[in-house]
Design goal:
Length: about 300
Amino acid sequence: MKNYTAALTLTLLLGATVTLFGLTWADLASIRPPGPLKTTPPDRRLIQQGERLVLTNCAHCHSNDEGRLTGKPIDGVSASLGRIVSANITKDSVQGIGRWSDIQLVTLLRTGVDPKGYKAHFIMPRYPLLADADMQAIVAFLRSNEYSVQTTRYTGPAHKPSILSGFISTFFIKRLPEPKQPIPLPDTVKSLLYGRYLVNSRYQCFACHSAYVQKANLLQPEKTKGYLAGGSKFDDTDEKFVYSANLTSDPETGFGRYTEAEFREVMHLGKKRSGQIVRSPMLPYPLMNNREINAIYQYLKSVPPVHHPISR
Ligand code: HEC
Ligand code: HEC
């Protein structure tokens, strides 16, 4: 009897609380702990953050001339890899990702493996350490009704990777493991931690700015050979080579003499401290906000100096 009363009181109390907050029992049943990759209902701020991340990290490879993410042939890729065409990532249900589930999309972005179990070409970056919140924002944007992701077909030449591409993919590219735990976004007020996250995960500056872009350790960035000391070789579009800059705090050969204002200028406008414009594949990041600029700046200044002159 006592138990029964207690249960009844509890039910009434819960009922009262629920009514108080204007919820119904059905609502209560649908409340779940926030999962790491919950993308519905659409949230304006999330979509906007996703748009900023996609415009910064993906659009230079996936956007056509009209700003639609239909995919396109990638410039500046060594001819020995064949003709590399990025995928259509609009909501088109045949060519694009309209039929992919959120999980399939996240798996591709983290591991590099598509829903059919095939590895995407290794030119396509992978983001094993991207925070769940950033991943969620990217997915929300790709699912939105914004102009660049609306259903659009690609009509250019087909993706035709060479035998060498296939060989590298088969023997040298491994599927990356999926994270076993949620990946939280670091506190954006703690500059060093946030800066490290931006350099290693959100923008993966370290991959290009270490010794060999091909050997970037995506799972443990700091273990990459020549971490942030520059020198990785790239094909420039004029068939010359360009080497990535040393971003360690070394004042002679590295980033040590950059002021924050100069750094903002190279990030936003592509103008180096020397006055020259950065060459491809380095691109300006016009959408980078001041907190990001400041955090990356603080972090790079904290990276132990490595004396490593870079050929021009
Ligand atoms: C350096 C160029 C480059 C960048 C940057 C890039 N991609 Fe890609 N992406 C590619 C290429 C090339 C392919 C085609 C790979 C293939 O078909 O094997 C591709 C394929 C894809 C696919 C489809 C994979 C498949 O198997 O069909 C998705 C989805 C995708 N990219 C999303 C993104 C997103 C989201 C971003 C940004 C977070 C991004 N990509 C950044 C070049 C790039
Ligand atoms: C796709 C490869 C790539 C990525 C990604 C990349 N960079 Fe670069 N970066 C380069 C290359 C190559 C150069 C050298 C360009 C030149 O010499 O004109 C360069 C140049 C620079 C310079 C100019 C240094 C100088 O000599 O004055 C700075 C600063 C810089 N990068 C910072 C960054 C930061 C910060 C990020 C991440 C937010 C980043 N880069 C991402 C390849 C890359």
